[in-house]
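Milestone M4 deliverable, item 7.
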Amino acid sequence: MNRDQRLYDLVQILRDGKLHTADELGRTMGVSTRTIWRDMAMMAATGIPVEGERGLGYILRTPLVLPPTALTQDEAGVLGEALRAIADDPTHPRARAAKTLLYKIATLLPQAGLGEP
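Output delivered:
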């Protein structure tokens, strides 16, 4: 399972509103606890309302509703290329925003195949 699919699956698990330990999530996902810690930090950095900390557990405090998104493979490719072009230009005033948006889209739409930003 690639990272994007794992992050998507983690969001789906956390949507139940219950507290989940990193150990439990790691066993479910087939990865180490340390990987879960990194995944949770990345999700929080991209704006997913995950709360918690190492040793305690993680929870999605705010209900997260993922609206249906229907993009063709070509549309997703164009979106990824455009965001990468902006994100890779350190002089662009919105480079950081493009990079975080690319992370969000790759996380929420793993089927788009955007991979690593």
